[in-house]
Amino acid sequence: MPLESASNPAITPSTVSRRFSVAPMMDWTDRHCRFFLRQLSQHALLYTEMVTTGAILHNDSARFLRHSAAEYPLALQLGGSVPVELAACAKLAQDAGYNEVNLNVGCPSDRVQNNMIGACLMGHPQLVADCVKAMQDAVSIPVTVKHRIGINGRDSYAELCDFVGTVRDAGCRSFTVHARIAILEGLSPKENREVPPLRYDIAAQLKQDFPDLEIILNGGIKTLEQCQQHLQTFDGVMLGREAYHNPYLLAQVDQQLFGATRPVLSRLEAMQSMRGYIAAHLAEGGSMHHITRHMLGLGQGFNGARRFRQLLSVDIHKSDDPLALFDQAAQLLQGR
Question: Which of 71, 116, 166, 272 gives 20 to 30 Å between its CA and that of 185?
Fold first, then answer.
């Protein structure tokens, strides 16, 4: 299938807002998920799953970069540590229409560590700086970094400042800070999102000591009330798993965080907004489950929610008429 790279003239690098964003999440924030989340919020900045430079340069780049212009504003997150390769991928991202390129310096998994990707790079500030500079020299869209507040063995505040300062000196102006350290041995990625304590105070100190930089807070944020509170200190907030498991939270982001006046979509309207997209995907030979697995969180906290989720996660695999089943599930959202 061709790469959909139509540009959106309303969104330029200078107008992309990071006030509210949805985190890159492996196996979750694929193009179908992002299209769905875009129905709920026009202003949220969306991120792809992390894509490695090897996947783009040595495989089918169009497949890994594929997206719809309807997803904008959209950032591509890259995993890698070879400056020339990251620069080449950043250029492909810009040519494909992405609004930003983000370097992953936060993933703690063993698999990416072995390829010098993710959080282990916090131990190599100059290498990260070299990567950022190479990407910035190759593109005009923003190049940003997502990182932890440290890694085991390099978790002092002075070392965090050394990392941020070194990468800043290479030209990076925007840092998304997951306010936990990463434990590189002995913890799974899931445990690394839960076991190391959240240290919002460390991230806040970073913003105070680097007032000229854009500092986006990530980690443990679950409500729009918390977002509003953190926005008094930080330039933006990034939601991770909560945005996935409770996607309807995004329905009020534009109104509460961006001052938009458009009506808040109901759950039913959000569901129905996906019908045409799903029909087109089915016509191309795709499975409805590829899309509806991202929509299960719409069924939360009301009578019939369990039946809603069952229809779209279990019964869907037995149906000869998936769109009819989709419509049946949608009726459970009446008045929601």
Answer: 166
The CATH superfamily holding the domain 20-258 is: Aldolase class I (3.20.20.70)
Closest-CA residue to 233 (of 269, 199, 197, 205): 205
> In 3D, which of 166, 18, 211, 171 has the Cα closest to residue 90?
171
For the chain, the structural domain boundaries read 20-258, 267-331
| 107 belongs to the catalytic site | yes
For the stretch 74-123, pLDDT in tens is 999 999 999 999 999 999 999 999 999 999 999 988 767 667 899 999 99
- How far, rounded to the nearest angstrom, does the alpha carbon of residue 227 sit from its chain's CA centroid? 16
Read off the tokens for 45: 């900045």
> Mean pLDDT of successive 10-residue segments in the chain (336 residues)?
39 75 96 98 98 93 93 98 98 97 91 82 98 98 98 96 98 98 87 91 98 98 98 98 95 97 94 97 95 94 88 91 95 87
**Of 107, 120, 131, 172, which one is the catalytic site residue?**
107
Pick from 240, 269, 90, 120: nearest CA to 185: 120
State pTM to two decimals: 0.93
